[in-house]
Amino acid sequence: MELADGDIALRPVRARDHRAWREVNQRNRAWLSPWEATIPPAPPGHLPSGRPSFRQMVRNLRAEASAGRMLPFAVFYRGRLAGQLTVAGITWGSMCSGHIGYWVDQAVAGRGVTPTAVALAVDHCFRSVGLHRIEICIRPENAPSRRVVEKLGFREEGLRPRYLHIDGDWRDHLVYALTSEEVPEGLLARWHSLRYDPPGGLDRNAGSELEGRPDRDDRPDRPGNAREMR
């Protein structure tokens, strides 16, 4: 499956993405690390948890996707890997919801990659998967990422204190949400109608936090949207 709009495309993360993912992530270390999920210290008497390798991460993502709990995508810009977006925490039954995390290469920031990728994923979730609600949680300090979701029409619903372990400590996050009724025209159509409105671009951000990245020693790239990689 591939979701695409112009120069931007999403497709499932694959093991063969290892080299490209590693190059992008390592080149963007300083850009991503302030927003990247980390593993908290182990309780007394327990060994520290290690991060998985890239191949282990892909296997975990595939297993979660097969179970209907996750949609992991690699983000491409003009045919080159430029980031990652994951719809995680998918819950069915009476809730039908999930949350999105993402990161993008600093080299493509400001070109509409982040909002387009988010819009593609949200439309797929609402129209094809059958979800009703999508959340994106962002640190209050990450103003560029907040502007992206606010421009797309996500509602700010409140603060979750010390919500995720990011960059070495437990960090507060603002919750943004959108339901299918709020975008009957589709989020991509909304983004197209706004795209040329704000000067300077909308996505000069590393992302909303992602967790579950591989170790620096053996990972292709660990960008900073910490929730997608659960």
Care to describe what's here?
By secondary structure, the chain is of the alpha+beta class. Helix content is 27%, strand content 30%. The chain is built from six helices and nine strands. Strands 1, 2, 3, 4, 5, 6, 7, 8 and 9 form a nine-stranded mixed β-sheet that branches. Helix 4 links the parallel strand 5 and strand 6 (133-138). The longest helix is centred in the middle third of the chain and has 17 residues, at 113-129. Mean pLDDT is 85; it is low at 211-230.
- In terms of per-residue confidence, which ranges show pLDDT below 50 for 5 or more consecutive residues? 211-230
- What percent strand? 25-35%
- Strand and helix order: EEHHHEEEHEHEEHE
Mean pLDDT: 85
For the sheet with most strands, the description reads: 9 strands, mixed
Number of continuous helical runs: 6
Alpha-beta content class = alpha+beta
Helix content: 25-40%
Q: What is the straight-line distance between the termini?
A: 21 Å
Instruction: Tell the overall outline.
Output: globular
Count of individual beta strands: 9
* Gyration radius over CA: 16 Å
